[in-house]
Structure formats: C-alpha cells, structure tokens
Amino acid sequence: MLGMANHRSDPPILVTGAHRSGTTWVGKMLALSPRIGYISEPLNRWHRPGVMRVPLQHWYTYICEDNEADYFPALQETVQFNYHPWAELRSLRSLKDVLRMGRDGSTFFRGRIFHQRALLKDPFAVFSVPWFAQRLGCQVVIIIRHPAAFVSSLVRLEWPFEISDLLYQPLLMRDWLAPFRARMEEALARPEDIIGRSSLLWTMIYHVVDCFKNRFPGFSIVRHEDLSVDPIEEYRKIFAALGIDFTHAVQEVILNSSSTRNPKEIPRKDIYSVHLDSRANLDNWKNRLDQWEIDRIRELTQEVAGLYYDDSDWE
C-alpha cells in the first residue's frame, strides 16, 4: 500500500482522461474559482521545466510505488506552486517560451501568495491516477468521451499515437496493459492506421478507468456528452464533489462557454479553445467519419465502450 503524503486541508485536484476528451474545458471551468490555481499538463513530454523539473521519456508516463522516487519530489513541488525560474530561463528558445514563462510564473506566484488549491489538468496522468490520489492526496475527476468522437478528433488533427510509448513502459504493462500486448505489437506494424491506434488507445485507457471505479469510489467519473447536454447540472455535481463554490458568476461563464452562439467546430488553429456549441459538437464525429469508419471504431472498442455507451449513443 502506498503511503499518504502530507497535504493541506484543501487537497490538489487532478482532471484527467484521454487527451482530446474535454479535460481542458473541465479544468478551466473549475479554475474559475479564485481558490483554484490551474496548472497544465506537468506530465506532457513537452512540459516546461519551470513547472515540473523532471524530464519525461514517454507520453502517458506511468508512476507507481516502484518508480516514484524519480517523480515524487518534483510533482510535490508542482502542487505546492514551487516554480523553477532558473531551469526555465536555461530552456528559453523563443518569444513563445518567454511568454509561457510569464504565464506560468504568475500562476505559481498567485498560487503561493493566495494559498490556492493546485488543479492539475493532465490527460497524460490517467494511468497514474491511484498514485496521484494516494501520494499527492489529489481529488480526481476523470472525463470519458465517446470513442468515435475521440478517434475522429485525432483523425481530423492527424495526430497518430505512438503505441510504443506505452508498450515500452514495463511497469505500466505489468500493472495494467499486459492483456493488450499482442494488439499493441500488431499496431506497431501499422503506423499509418490512425483509426486502429486511436481505438486501441481509447480501449486501454477506459478499461483501466473501469478498474478504478470500484477501487476508488470517491473519484468523479463524468461523460463529456453529459456535460455537453446539461453543463450547469453536471458541473454543479463536480463542484460539489470537490467542495468548490458554484457561484452565479461561474454558471454564467459555463453557459457562455457552451452556448449555441459559439462555433459548432473548434478551428484547427485554436484547438484548445473552450468556447464551443457543446450540443452541436456532440454530432461532429458523425459528419467527419464515414459509416464504415464508425462501424470499425465500434467493433474495435466494443468490449469497453459498452460499459459507458449503449446502442443509442452510436445512432
């Protein structure tokens, strides 16, 4: 059993799930509270060293008791808003890097000065959720997105996923992904098959999330589709579970972020925007994908997708 870390009465928050599943929207809406300090993706392979000082070799890096010595001190500094300006200065290569340093430095400064709760928005932490909960004391929100919507997003952006990032992590394979080894090895031989790889990634992630449900009943596991259809009521539940005030001002921003006045599709040049017609977005995958592609995604993901979605969700 992992030991509990010492942490403040207001624990940090981890918002996770597969990338392109709505974690940015949820994280930004929770961070509307002045009590919350938003920290983006410390487990992103391209994270800034000022935010988290340890470099990473893999996407979806898995952290557990056996390798925590490599990560625990650095991530504990992150949730305590300890910024590393000298490490960041040494890494600056462009004006964009300088602007990011200003953004991140001010976020960490405010977090320390105002004693905010750290909110880690990080899809790449999804396999490591038990460790974040037990060692950093995080409250956890996991976002699920329909497999066809997830896959269609990656196809649209032409973002193939390197399965080797998971397959070459022995601890992750040992603890969670051993049943998928043969399919992962097969996927390595088909680098051009974005649909196949993305479907496999979705299946593995949400198979593991289903394993979490009984072991960690305190986790908030939310479907992106439910948030999109009824954002006020669904966000109200998340705010309550995390002990964050759901004010009128917060409600107004959430309504504005999901309004029918917003674009029905986020432009590719602005893929991290959180202003979208949330209901219209539910059907985008049906317009992007051919029927044979939808049928293939359903076949490839059905063993896990059926835990979260029924026939009506594929119509």
Walkthrough of the structure:
Strands 2-3-1-4-5 form a 5-stranded parallel sheet, with helices on both faces. With 315 residues, the chain is of the alpha/beta class. The radius of gyration is 19 Å and the shape is globular. The chain contains 16 helices and 5 strands.
Strand order of the largest sheet: 2-3-1-4-5
The global form is globular
Q: Outline the low-pLDDT stretches.
A: 1-8
Structural class: alpha/beta
Number of helical elements: 16
Largest sheet: 5 strands, parallel
| Residues in helices, as a percent range | 40-55%
| Proportion of beta-strand residues | 5-15%
The total of beta strands comes to: 5
Series of secondary-structure elements, N-terminal to C-terminal: EHEHHHEHEHHHHHEHHHHHH
Whole-angstrom Rg: 19 Å
Cα separation of the termini: 44 Å
Q: Report mean pLDDT, rounded to a whole number.
A: 93
Give a quick summary of the entry:
With 315 residues, this protein is α/β, with parallel strands linked by helices. Helices cover 49% and strands 8% of the residues. It has a five-stranded parallel sheet with strand order 2-3-1-4-5, with helices on both faces.
